[in-house]
Write a structure and sequence with these properties.
The protein is built from two helices and five strands, in the order ββαβαββ. It has 101 residues and is of the alpha+beta class. It has one domain (2-99): Ubiquitin-like (UB roll), CATH 3.10.20. It is globular, with a radius of gyration of 12 Å. The termini are far apart. Bound molecules: FE2/S2 (inorganic) cluster (FES). Pfam families: Fer2. InterPro entries: 2Fe-2S_ferredoxin-like_sf, 2Fe-2S_ferredoxin-type, Adrenodoxin-like, Beta-grasp_dom_sf. Belongs to the adrenodoxin/putidaredoxin family. Its cofactor is [2Fe-2S] cluster.
Amino acid sequence: MATLTILPSGTTIEAENGTSLMQAIINAGEKLLSKCGGQASCGACHVFITAGRKGVSKMTPAENAKLDTIVGVGSKSRLACQATLLGTEPVTVELLGALSG
Ligand code: FES
């Protein structure tokens, strides 16, 4: 199981390894925008991984290419629909709300 803490609410949940960040965030009852249904093409699910970056899957070329087009992207940026929880260490994710996309 993977432990995920979601900011700014501070909600912490357990999720099955292999669960996408997006699914885990939604399962926790948090809101996450998605305009493309998780296809790495809308960028609305942009989040920051503030801790535990080794606890999520490696970035794919499609995710990397999409992130390159989003304003405000930094070294902690991921697309929640593409990153999956590995369960190797606890992960903290910060939702960006209106800043995304
Ligand atoms: S939901 Fe569209 S890029 Fe993630």
